[in-house]
Structure formats: C-alpha cells, structure tokens
Design goal:
homotetramer, alpha/beta, 2 domains, six-stranded mixed β-sheet, 9 helices, globular
Chain lengths: ~220, ~220, ~220, ~220
C-alpha cells in the first residue's frame, strides 16, 4: 500500500476548520445520529458530476438524505443474478431497511455521461462500444432512452436524452418488486428532477403535464 | 409514470431559497462551470449514509469534487466482462477523462452495510446470503476484509471491518490498469480515510505507520 | 547583474521542504494546472502588508484565487491613456480573459499606506506630497475617501479611512466599462471586506445595511 | 453600491474555519503583529497567477513577506512623474520604510501575460497594441526582453521571455536610487527566481553562472 498517501494539507486544513466550527456547533446532534443511527427522509440518486451539489441545492444537512451518486444518475433494471449491483443494493437498503419516504432521481445539464451515450449510439464513439469500456457498458442502460428520441437538432436531442436518463431510471425503479410494493402501500413516492447548472434552474417531472415543468 | 409525483413542498422551498441566495451570489461562477465543463481536483468514493457529509467536512463547493457514493464505499475488483459496473465506470471516467489528481476512499463509523457484511460472514444473516439480496451480493466485495480480521470482541472486529472496507477498496483500485498507470506516472495519489460520525474524528491511512492515524 | 544573489539558504530549505511534501502530495493536480491553465473562481485585491494573508484566511490553494496586491488595496479610476497601469491591467485580465465570478477588495486594520494618506491629507507629511514620492502619488487615489470622513477623533477617522480605501476601490472598479458590463450581465459580483489583524475579525460591506457588518 | 454583495457562503465558511483554528492557535502573535506593526524580512514581487503560491512554496506565515503581485511580476523603470505607480510605490515603501533585507522577483512557467507580450511583439495580437489595452500597455515593459531573445523555436523563446521578465524587472529595480543605495550599503540583496508550476521546480539567477540554475 505504498501507493497510498496521507491526506493532502489543503484538505487537512479544511477538515480542521469544519471540526472547530460546524462540528463544535452541532455536536449533540451528531452524537445522537451516531448512537441512534440514521433516519433519512429521502434517497437521492444523482450524477457524480462535481457541479451537481445536491446538499447545497436542497440545504441538506447531516442525516437528511441517503445519497447514491453514479455516472448519469442511472438505475439499471432489476436483475437479481447474484452479481455485484451497487445501485440496486443502495436502492434495496434505502427502501427496505431505511424505509425512506421519497426516492428522487436528479439529472442535470451538460452531463458528460449522457453526451458519451449519445455519441456512442450515433456510432461516433467506437471506444465506448468496446466490451472493456466501463463507461460505455454503464451507459448502455440509457440506450432505450436514445431509441425514443424525436428527430431534431443535436443540442435538442442531447438535452432530451439528459431528461430521458431520469425517466429511464424511474421506469427501471418500478421493475424492483420492493419499490413497487412501497409505492402501492403509500409509503414511498418517486420524483424526477433535472437541473440546469448555469442558470440554477430546476425542473420536476409532472405526470399531469406529461413532462418536465419548472419548479 | 403515474407513480411519479412533483417535488414535495419542503424541497421546493429549500431550492427556492438556494436560488435566491447562493445561486444569486455565485451566478458568474456557475455559468462558467456550465460553459467550460467541470475540472474537479479529486474524486471521493464515500458511503450513501446520510450522516457522511463529504462536502461539509471538506468545505467543498460546486466544481471541486467528483463524488461517487455507494453502500460502504466499496470498489469491486477490475472485471471488464461487459456487464454494468457503476463504480468502475465512475472511476474510469474520473481517472481517464477528468484526470483527477487525488482518489479518496472515505469510510465511516456505524456503517450499516459493514455491519450487515459482518453478520452475514458470521452466519447470522441468512437473508443476506440469498442470491436475490442486492445488499448481500454487494457486500461480498468486503469478504476478503472479514477473512483477515484478528480475533477479539465484536465491537473491535466491526470497527476493524469498517477500516478494512477502505483498505479492500484501495487494493481493488490498484487492480485497474488505468489507476495503476496514473499512479506510476505521478499523476494520481490514493488516500484512505475513516471518519467517526459522533466525535467528528478523521483518520487517514498512513503507509509509514502501517495503519490509520488521526488527522 | 552582480547585485543579484542566489536565493538565501533559509528559503532554499523551505522550498525543498515544500517540494518533498506538498508538491509530492499534489503532483497530479499541479501538472494539470500547468497543462490546462488556470481557472480561478475569484480575483482578490489586497494590500502588500505581510500580515494580510489572504490565502490563509480563505484556505486558498493553488489555482483558486487570482491575487493582485498593492499598497492599501487601491484601484485607480479608469484611465486608458496608454501609460503603465498595473492594477488596471490585472483587473482587465481577470475580468475579460479569465472571467472570474467574484472580485473581492480586502482592506485591513493598521494599514501603513492609509495612515500615510491620512497624515498627508492633514498636512503633516510633506515628504509624501512631493512629486517624486511614489507612495504619496499612489495614495492620492484615496484622497476622495479622506474628503468624506466625518469629524471625530483621529483613531476613528483613520479606521474609517481604512474602510474608505475599500469603498473608493469599489467605486473606481465601476468606472471600468468591462467591469460594469460583467456585473450587468450577471457574470461578476463585487465584494468589499475589511479584516482586523489583531482580532482575526472580518467585516463585509452589506448594501442593505449601508456599511460594513461582521461576517 | 448596489452592485456590491456580501461575501459568498463558501468563503464565509472557510474564514470561520480559519478563525477557529489558525487564528485561535496564533492569537498572541497576531496581536503583537497588530500592535507593533509588521517587520517583514523580504519583499516578493510575483505574478497574480492563481497557480503561483508564494506563501506555500516558501512556507511563509503572517508577517514574513511583503508581497506585491501584478501581471507577469514586472517592475517598470524609475519614473517619478507624479502619476500613480502602484509597483514603484510598493517597492519604495518596502525598501525605505520597512527596510526589507531581500527583494525577490519570482517568475513562472505558462505565464499568460508573457505569452500575450510575445504574441504582441510578433505582431499577432493587434488588440493588445491598442492604446486602451491595459494589459498591452503594461506588457510594454517587457518589450526590451523580447528584443534580446535569441532565434529559436517558439516554445524556447517563450520560456526565455518568462525568464527575461525576471531579468528586466531586476534591471529596472536598479534604476531606483533608493534600491541602488540600499544594495550599495549592504542592506538589501536582490534575487531572481523562476518556478515551473507542473514540475514544482525552482531556478535562481546565479550571476556566477550568468543564468538561471536549479535550486
């Protein structure tokens, strides 16, 4: 493990600042969270993108959101085949053990994963089609979204595919028996969001409108 | 998609507060991030646990960290078999496309996933051993860590397994050819951290000490 | 160039320490910064005073702040007369080439330049009034701030002049067409700060309060 | 002053962290620095570039260095014409009032100002030649350095011009009577440095070698 190094100084300093302020100001609550365990109100599935700051947008504090982040906020279909499924494991734990009340999928503008998927489906990214490309194989989950895109210019289709990444994930969520059951029992609601990074905008999928509307 | 509902009011209100304050105060920067794309300095792999607040601990703001979160901050071994591998895809994207300089694995106290793994390995959680248990199959990644645990009381062994979840992930990271290459080229350093939620503590793996030491 | 000497030993040693630690721990990031160029989020205009440590106060690391430092953190008015204007050049580069999102003017307690200006305006520092005094001619920029000072004791007036050095600079900033345009386009926000060195205090100009308030 | 906004949250948090840690740990020293005034050992003239971190490289702490930063670390020639000269004012204050023992000019690789000067002198940057270009008029100071460049490929000439920005500044420093006098009195030494950002390298001008040598 010689390749492993101690934490860089700039993060040590920031941590120490947090310890002396935010931690010191909230010590009682953090101790309770540690002793009694977490009880998050919602699970959020968002992209790893550094510009998507779910805790900031929602003013979230320690203990509120169970957060899973992966490339392009994707949920694969239900596949209980005995392999490692990180996303499915996180959803199973949130819904069956933590019993969160909301499951939110959050997409965003300018998603590199979605763009890669678009180029791959258009036949312009052969390296993503190789079996050994983890990004390519992960983005295969979004192919059904690409198939449904309306004709149009590339920018519009790319934007539509970003929102499709939310819808495909919501559809796949409903293939998980424990998700469907919690929804039917009235214990869980699903939500689809898309945020515009540059404009700070937020849209929510509204089934009445049959599409995304500004919040 | 009737199971999908618009965003709940409490989150709408928080978002609107963020838009009118933080967004308004940082609009120029967010626009640039949108136009020029992200350039995060580090990737962090942490647990989904709602009490682990990596952006808070490190005072991270929009654009700084590429964050992947899954149950128990695990990295599976390199397996380019053509299946969906969300964690491996995130690492591939961070290292080969974004070229982050630091890859940080952050474990924590009281991890429910680690506890489940411990019980499963002790033979006390048969439901986690079923093929259909996503959490069980995901936690299989940590079995090598369990095998190496020293004898002792349960609390100590559980704590040791939490730290082992960081070490196993670091070991598995080094099975990815593009990670090893970036490390050898001096472009990437790996870091292992473990945080104590109740005490706000932070430990870093120090190869010179051969274990975790307080930051 | 015989007047030029090699770097003194005490700085050689410190540099070598930095190279073996901070540089070694952040090599990948520094290489990227070198290859891809800087993308600072903010420009800071502060005093040269050795006690004003903007990178320390804000935990700033390589690549974050574009920093201009001059005597008394002054910005002269917009004067495109073809002469050398170092401060104006720095602002032009930050706003039009680097497109920073924030422009921060940071004043401080016990500023020697401000005190010189005060004595000069009171008629007690004839040497600063000479044409050949670079410090005097530079501090002329702050004369409009002196003119506006309320009556009172000297200590209060000097403190008020320190804060006026921030306000005059902010006013002058708004005489630069490219600054005004970036502000109007919502791409740039201006900020005025004053720090108390002995007490470690920080005040920010708040237009709602019409003055400086503690952070 | 409606264009001025309070300090953004991310900097408020970082400041508060510094106050609770670094300030708290050094309170006595900062109070003394405030009461007794600064007594810096050296003046450093460096570029505004966000990647040049003089306090980090030299492990500098509050009170050690009087720092002036402008585009391309340039010193204009001595011109006591009664106009605003920010750089000359800073040098005058450091040498005659603070009586620093070292005056260090620090250049760096990949300097945007130097590159602009190079393109301008090659006739490829007409916008920089306009009278209204503050950056162009500021970089005129480096024209004598361009004139002296040896023939060669562009990358080599650009690198040479970066180092020339240090030499021209040192030459101009010696046109200031108070600098020359302090040097002759044995109270001040001049130093020329150039740092390679990506490699963390540092070179010092060595008159014995007649050029820059690695530290």
């Amino acid at each position: 493990m010689d390749a492993v190094r101690p934490l860089p100084d700039f993060l040590v300093k920031r941590y120490q600042g947090w310890k002396a302020t935010t931690y010191a100001d909230n010590r009682g609550w953090y101790k309770r969270l540690a002793e009694e365990g977490q009880r998050p109100r919602a699970m959020v599935i968002s992209c790893c993108d550094s510009r998507v700051h779910v805790t900031s947008i929602f003013g979230a504090d320690q203990g509120e959101f169970f957060i899973h982040r992966n490339i392009a906020n994707l949920v694969p279909p239900y596949e209980p085949d005995g392999d490692h499924h990180g996303t499915s494991a996180a959803i199973e734990y949130a819904v069956t053990s933590l019993r969160v009340g909301h499951l939110i999928v959050l997409g965003h503008s300018g998603c590199g994963g979605v763009e890669g998927c678009y180029q791959m489906c258009e036949g312009r990214a052969p390296h993503l089609e190789e079996k050994t490309s983890f990004v390519g194989r992960w983005m295969d989950i979004l192919r059904p979204g690409y198939e449904r895109l309306a004709a149009g210019n590339e920018a519009d289709r790319m934007r539509a595919l970003e929102k499709a990444s939310v819808m495909v994930s919501l559809e796949n969520l409903l293939t998980f028996p424990f998700v469907t059951k919690a929804v039917e029992d009235g214990l869980l609601t699903l939500h689809g969001l898309w945020t515009h990074i540059g404009e700070g905008g937020l849209e929510t999928y509204d089934p009445a409108a049959g599409g995304f509307v500004a919040v």
